[in-house]
Write a structure and sequence with these properties.
This protein is α+β, with helices and mostly antiparallel strands. 23% of the residues lie in helices and 51% in strands. It contains 6 helices and 14 strands. The chain has helices spanning 2-25, 34-41, 93-97, 115-125, 129-137, 237-240, and strands at 28-29, 49-51, 55-60, 65-77, 80-92, 105-110, 113-114, 138-150, 162-174, 178-190, 193-203, 206-218, 221-236, 255-268. Strands 1, 2, 3, 4, 5, 6, 7, 8, 9, 10, 11, 12, 13 and 14 form a 14-stranded antiparallel sheet that branches. It is elongated, with a radius of gyration of 26 Å.
């Protein structure tokens, strides 16, 4: 009798540990969480639709939670579509067994997106004049980003969202006088704080580099802090006229060749 009990207990332990290892490494496909992800997505906009494909669930035994991840997802709003790489969320095992679970966070990773298409999509999501202006000024570029949303216990989106990613090959034309192109940078956004790093661009065919740029939004003002470095930058008289009036300093400047490292700070309402 004891041998049977021992064998049963050993078999049970092996099955439990085997199941934990399988769920932690391989996972299983399920559609159990599709409705919950769809429900949370509509908290952003009631007209926002989400097309879910395979949903994979894995176990994190150390944190006692399930990791739910979907691949090849599309967000659809009216006639605009955004392709996503994946959506990931965490669900407490305890809340799952209580059958009263809700999502505490949602991590959205995008595929490379054309910035103009993204701006058009965001304007449908929130009709903000700033987005409309950006849509008109931006001529090209691609963005890849990770968006992390947090929800309160009622399922509403909290203000402590986080966005990070990279922009490649951007171009902005401003008043047909300032042509910004080959724009590359990394970015992080936390609520009303914006951090940009390794900003590289050409302004009217002149190369500029900024290792860091910060923008802080306080009430109705945006404060800018940053640094610009230039190596062997050559400006002709016609280039200088875009920045200063040559006649006002009574100079016969034909060409300027300089290196610089500048810190700057200013505010805009």
């Amino acid at each position: 009798m004891k041998k049977i009990i021992y064998r049963f207990l050993i078999t049970l332990v092996v099955l439990i540990f085997g199941g934990i290892i399988f769920l932690s490494t391989v996972g299983i496909k399920t559609d159990k969480f599709n409705s919950k992800i769809t429900e949370q997505t509509k908290k952003v906009n009631k007209d926002l639709k989400i097309k879910l494909n395979d949903v994979m669930i894995t176990l994190d035994p150390l944190k006692f939670k399930f990791i739910v991840k979907t691949f090849g997802t599309n967000l659809i709003l009216k006639d605009k579509k955004i392709q996503l790489k994946n959506i990931k969320t965490n669900i407490s095992i305890i809340s799952l067994f209580n059958r009263n679970f809700s999502l505490s966070d949602l991590v959205i990773s995008t595929k490379p997106l054309e910035i103009n298409n993204l701006a058009s999509f965001l304007r449908l999501l929130k009709n903000d004049p700033k987005i409309y202006i950006a849509e008109k000024l931006i001529k090209k570029g691609y963005v890849v980003s990770d968006i992390k949303l947090y929800f309160d216990r009622f399922g509403n989106i909290k203000d402590n969202y986080q966005v990070s990613g990279i922009v490649k090959d951007g171009r902005i034309n401003f008043l047909k006088k300032y042509d910004f192109k080959n724009i590359d940078f990394n970015f992080k956004i936390k609520n009303k704080n914006f951090e940009f790093a390794d900003l590289k661009l050409f302004l009217n065919e002149k190369k500029f580099y900024s290792p860091k740029l910060s923008i802080i939004n306080i009430k109705n003002k945006y404060s800018f802090f940053g640094k610009i470095n230039n190596d062997d930058l050559i400006l002709l008289a016609k280039d200088l006229e875009n920045f200063i009036k040559i006649d006002s300093i009574n100079s016969n400047i034909k060409k300027v060749n300089f290196n610089s490292e500048n810190n700057f700070q200013f505010s805009l309402d």
